[in-house]
Amino acid sequence: MNDHYYALIMAGGVGTRLWPLSREDRPKQALPLIGDRTMFQIALDRLAPLFTPDRMLVVAGSNHVALLKAQGPGIPNENFIVEPMGRGTAPAIALGAIHLGRKHPDAMMAVLTADHFIADEAGFRRALLAAGKVAARGHLVTLGVTPDTPATGYGYIERGEVVESVENFLAYRVMSFREKPSAAAAERFLADGRHSWNSGMFIWRVDRFLAELARTMPEFCAQLDEIDRALGTPGESSTLAKVWPRVASQTVDYGVMEKARDVVVIPIDIGWNDIGSWASLLDVLPGDADGNVCIHAEHLNAGSRNVLVHGRGRIVATIGLEDVIIVDTEDVVLVCRKDQAEAVKRMVDRLKDEGRTDIL
Amino acid sequence: MNDHYYALIMAGGVGTRLWPLSREDRPKQALPLIGDRTMFQIALDRLAPLFTPDRMLVVAGSNHVALLKAQGPGIPNENFIVEPMGRGTAPAIALGAIHLGRKHPDAMMAVLTADHFIADEAGFRRALLAAGKVAARGHLVTLGVTPDTPATGYGYIERGEVVESVENFLAYRVMSFREKPSAAAAERFLADGRHSWNSGMFIWRVDRFLAELARTMPEFCAQLDEIDRALGTPGESSTLAKVWPRVASQTVDYGVMEKARDVVVIPIDIGWNDIGSWASLLDVLPGDADGNVCIHAEHLNAGSRNVLVHGRGRIVATIGLEDVIIVDTEDVVLVCRKDQAEAVKRMVDRLKDEGRTDIL
User: Fold this and answer.
1) A240 in any annotated domain
2) B29 and B118 share a domain?
3) For residue range A39-56, what is the model confidence (pLDDT) as tens digits?
């Protein structure tokens, strides 16, 4: 095991589809979405057996960093890396990578998420350890989640032959990254047994990642170099503030991974869900005998099935509902058909267009 | 027109099926259910062109009378007749009748409701005037509402031949009162054109009603005499408190009208609805292009149809719902399928069994 194995926790974004609980200044990762602890706190708890707080780095937006610092008091202040604005995962990860590279040229990083649900936390940590060993040999490792449904909301990773075998985990050569597929394609991917969901979690050596970044995103790397040179100098903040707005948005999947060399995928089956929408929360959490899930509320029910009640301590009474989501917040109540949970984003977009900053 | 024509406004009951807005101490008639004015205030406004406030009597429960007095400030205090507890409509009306009989032995009374919706208020007042003329001749008049659906939630009145004709209104002999019918019977009643809904509104001379009461409910009349003798004496309250708990509950329909002589029905078509449940409120009120009705709230909608939002100023967002009722109150949110709106009563009964006085 590399002595300089770090976790880079990606804590940007808002989680728009979890409106009205998520707001611009109350992002998904900072919400107690599934219990008393916030998703960010749960992520830290989950990683604590592997990474001491000084080996956790957090990338977050400037408007969220104070909130996250309060929720992760053990993490040193300098480990919070602030993005002036969101520019996609490739620039965010790269920012973390140059910070880490300054600490230890031979550092290894696990790019992890602050807002995902993982049922089997011990299995997850075992996978991170195994992936670390594979990555130490120079591979760029992606954690691929074994699909149990033909989901169309995730990207898929197609695998080829086995490259490495480490402690019950197999690392396969990646044949292709597939964007969110059609329903028919998703059915095929599920059936052929050669595809994993793209979890957005990656493990690699910093030097290897930066080398592939230089090859795949040379224009951005010139900008990144300018930031890198300013790190630790009095001009660090002003340089970032000057350069970052000019950075083009890009995801690490399309910007780097699709074109990178020596990319492998380790399939894992750990009860993972990105909780992208209220519907996925209902799918993930254990319900009562009728499939109803109630968080932070008292649910009085007469004949309702498969209902999610996400509240704020008040009583929510339901009669005769099926497959419905109810989210009770201080100033907005949302009632949504489960199969239209994705439309929450469109409602939020409309509110943005209408300038409804009071409820965004 | 009789100079001593009074309105007896029945303002008892809670309106359990309109929980969680209605509560033990916030009964339906005292709620701003359809707009800014409460149902009681709307009833008073509607009657104001016919009855001066001193000719309005109000029968109410002891726990509601203060609330109603505040909402009907023009009505003299002594016109509020307090029932120590609910005993059904027959005793309540009889209590009003003996108060009126003391004022004017030849008084005539219109027994009216405090919590019903009437679209055509002018037509309603014309019917009351015509009914007053019919009642002056000694008939016991019931106002029968011309049905437009085979409702099973109302009682029906079957009519025979025409007895009187007054100003475009016809008074028919009543052949029978029918309890809430089966769906098949309701279909027949609607089709045969000889049935009206029992609106619970009656017009008669006080002397005629008391005479029929004496004949049909002699046991109760002995109790009523005891109360009557104490009216206006220092022992009035204590007598009522002593006698009333022993009075048997009875409706005026079954206790008196079914057996009374000279009962007539005047069919009226005035857009009447008793707003017995949230579903009826959705039926009665004009909706937007998709049939959605929003009261006391801001409704953000994406693709929902036939939804009732009854709020308290907060924002209610709905996505993809159909035929759903949402009631947002201070401490409880109710979300209910429209076609199960009657089940609200069962939920309240369950809460009573569980001793949930906090939300009753």
Assistant:
1) yes
2) yes
3) 999 999 999 999 999 999
pLDDT band at A2 (very low <50, low <70, confident <90, very high): low
Query: B334: nearest CA in chain A?
Result: A317
- Give the count of domains, chain B: 2
Question: How close are the terminal C-alpha atoms of chain A, in Å?
Answer: 45
Four-point Cα dihedral A109, A111, A116, A118, nearest 10: -40
Q: Rounded mean pLDDT of A231-254? A: 95
Taking Cα atoms as reference points, which of B157, B120, B152, B193 lies closest to residue B279?
Answer: B152
Asked whether the beta carbons of residue B320 and residue A326 sit closer than 8 angstroms, the reply is: no
| Half-sphere exposure for B155 (CA within 13 Å, toward CB) | 18
How crowded is the C-beta side of A342, counted as CA atoms within 13 Å?
A: 3
pLDDT reading at B330 higher than 70? yes
> Between chains, do A20 and B317 touch, taking CB under 8 Å as contact?
yes
The rounded Cα A132 to chain-centroid distance in angstroms is 19
Residues 6+ apart with CB under 8 A from A281: A18, A33, A34, A275, A293, A308, A310
The CATH number assigned to the domain holding A256 equals 3.90.550.10
Nearest-CA distance B36 → chain A (Å):
21
pLDDT band at A157 (very low <50, low <70, confident <90, very high): very high
Preceding peptide of B20 cis, ω within 30°: yes
Could you tell me the residue range of the domain that residue B38 belongs to?
A: 5-273
Does residue B54 form part of some domain?
yes
Indicate the pairing of strand B117-118 with strand B272-273.
antiparallel
What's the pLDDT score for residue A227?
A: 97
Contacts of A262 (CB under 8 A, 6+ apart): A138, A139, A140, A208
Q: Residue B2: which pLDDT band, with cuts at 50, 70 and 90?
A: low
Q: How far apart are CA A64 and CA A27, in angstroms?
A: 8
| Residue A57: its H or E element | strand A56-61
Chain B residue at shortest CA distance from A20: B317
User: B255, B273, B291 — which closes off a domain?
Assistant: B273
Q: Is A22 exposed, middle or buried (0-12, 13-18, 19+ CB in 10 A)?
A: buried
Taking only the tens place, the pLDDT of each residue in B346-355 is 999 999 999 9
CA A308 from chain centre, in angstroms, equals 22
User: Which residues of chain B does A299 touch, with a Cβ-Cβ cutoff of 8 Å?
Assistant: none
Q: State chain B's mean pLDDT as an integer.
A: 95
Residue A217, phi then psi, degrees to nearest 5: -130, 65
Helices A121-136 and A39-47 pack at an angle, to 10 degrees, of 60
Residues in chain B: 360
Q: Are residues A194 and A325 in the same domain?
A: no
Sequence-distant (6+) residues with CB within 8 A of A231 are A98, A99, A102
Residue B360: inside a domain: no
- A217 and A76 in a common domain: yes
- Closest chain A residue by Cα to residue B324: A321
Distance of CA A185 to the CA centre of its chain: 24
Tell me if A115 is assigned to some domain. yes
B317 to A335: CB separation less than 8 angstroms, yes or no: yes
User: Is the domain of B305 the same as that of B260?
Assistant: no
Sign of the dihedral defined by the CA atoms of residues B275, B279, B280, B282, in that order: positive
Domain boundary among B247, B273, B299: B273
pLDDT, tens digit, for every residue of A287-303? 999 999 999 999 999 99
Torsion of CA A9, A14, A17, A21, to 10 degrees: 110
Tell me the per-residue pLDDT of B173-220, one tens digit each, with 9 for 90 and over: 999 999 899 999 999 999 999 999 999 999 999 999 999 999 999 999
